[in-house]
Design brief:
16 helices; mainly alpha; Hypothetical protein af1432
Amino acid sequence: MVHNFETSIREQLEKREHEILSPYASFSDESRGRSFEEEPCDIRPVYQRDRDRILHCKAFRRLKQKTQVFLAPCGDHYRTRLTHTLEVSQNARTIAKALKLNEELTEAIALGHDLGHTPYGHCGERVLNELCPGGFSHNEQSVRVVELLEKDGRGLNLTYEVRDGILNHQTSGNPSTLEGRIVRLSDKIAYINSDIDDSIRAHILKEEDIPKEFTDVLGNSLRIRLNTLIHDIIRSSEGKNDICMSEEVYKALMGLRKFMFENVYNNPLAKAEEKKAEHVVSELFKYYCGHVDKLPSEFYNLIVSGTAKERAVCDYIACMSDQFATNTFKQLTIPNTWNVL
């Protein structure tokens, strides 16, 4: 095999994108770039490099011990924030590949979209939003993680397109790329269906509890529903400069989402421990706001450099896993047993 050393592997891959991807795709060599210029990799196009940076960062690893829906579940098969992220990525890549869009950009956004999530899931987010001046939202915090908090304040220096997709992955967002729009829908598809699966495992729901008006359209199992939703997005979006769903399927999906809020997300049995989790987050916030000198140096230095103490405390708490938050609360509030040697 003869290698062409006049062009790098990265440049060859960038050229290949123009040959095989849709004209609506985000091409790596047309990225709006990074916040700080840096030497390009000779092997990896920019979005692949971003994907790798996210995969290797500390915030990504912490997702394995952060709640998806059920707090500290005992069973091995309940989703965590990490497994949810991987399911979003898998669904999104399937759609992107079928539509000949940029899989690496899609995957980077998907893997990074929940990096800023708090311990204890959305209940932790609600508490910080109430306590922090200016509010708190996990999508904005995810961007803050990749721009500032990772790598001791240097951030990951990701491309604009990845940061834009992370910021706008919620329902109200408006991503600037089709790849970002795929992740926005894939996130919803993943959490609704996996949360049904986990709710059935937890005996909160039975499959037959799901209204027939939704199962008639989407199907009556996790596998069938995912198949229906992904195929519908591909069929509805093919050849268009947009990512969309048919009206019938989208209406059923949003109806199913409303059903989940009414029967699971706000279910007293499923959420019985959340008041305790909210108390933990609230007390940690109060403690560290009153004792900023007890913050780890990387967060204390944020205050020294001009960040409001409340924001720096939010940064620290949001980085915590469920287990770390619980253990820290115990250490701060429960006396140790006296032990004379």
